[in-house]
Amino acid sequence: MSLLALSLAVALQSAPEAEAAAVVDRLHELASAADGPAYFDLFTPDARFVGTDGGERWGVEAFKAYAMPYFSQGKGWTYHPRDRVVTMLALPCHCVASFDELLDNDAYGVTRGSGVLVRTEAGWKIQQYVLSYVVPNDVARDVTALIRNHEAAKPAAPAP
After folding, report:
1. pLDDT, tens digit, 9 for 90 and up, residues 109-133
2. What is the pLDDT averaged over residues 37-45?
3. Of all helices (H) and strands (E), which one includes residue 115?
4. Number of domains in the chain
5. CA of 83: how far to CAs of 56, 102, 112, in Å?
6. CA–CA distance, 31 with 39 (Å, rounded to integer)
7. Euclidean distance between the first and final Cα of the chain, in Å?
8. Which of 58, 60, 61, 50 is nearest to 114 (CA)?
9. Does residue 18 belong to any structural domain of this protein?
């Protein structure tokens, strides 16, 4: 989906859905621009970022400690949204939204982002963002075999 088509799709959403989607768009823009302070301002203080590696479940402060050295060097990451669905949770306040999106990335190809946003006094904030790889079903067994082989080759953790 082109950026114009994505913008039109967002415009057809309800106001809260469109506002939440705009925050996710801003997240990607700021990551690409390596603007760490503005990027992390989009998260709630207790937010989580779940990355593609099994050990990547970071609280926002740990994620900030990881990312800020890259951002301070002008190194960000660029993901181009191609398709996104934002859903308001069935709460009368319209204050919690979930989303999932397909993203294009030069290094990783098609990826998927998903997460939760909450409406705060300061506007919509990201409570959780999950980045994952999209694995076509036709190659899923091959990919999982590579992962199993990689895990088996790791040295065993020392006994406590």
Report:
1. 999 999 999 999 999 999 999 999 9
2. 98
3. strand 109-120
4. 1
5. 24, 5, 10
6. 6
7. 51
8. 50
9. yes
pTM confidence score: 0.84
Residue 159 lies in a domain: no
**CA 31, 66, 130, 155 torsion: positive or negative?**
positive
How much is the pLDDT for 94?
Answer: 85
Give the residue numbers spanning the domain of 134.
3-153
Q: For 107-146, b where at least 16 C-beta lie within 10 A, e where not — what string?
A: eeeebebbbbbbbeeeebbbbbbbbeeeeeeeeeeeeeee
Residue 23 covered by a domain: yes
Q: Would you place residue 159 in the very low, low, confident or very high pLDDT band (cuts 50, 70, 90)?
A: confident
Query: Which pair of tokens denotes residue 19?
Result: 């506002």
DSSP bridge pairs for 100: 85, 114
Residue-wise pLDDT for 79-97, tens only, equals 999 999 999 998 888 899 9
CATH number at residue 128: 3.10.450.50
Q: Which two tokens stand for residue 68?
A: 């800020």
* Residue 94 counted as domain residue: yes
DSSP sequence for 84-107? EEEEE-S-TT--EEEEEEEEEETT
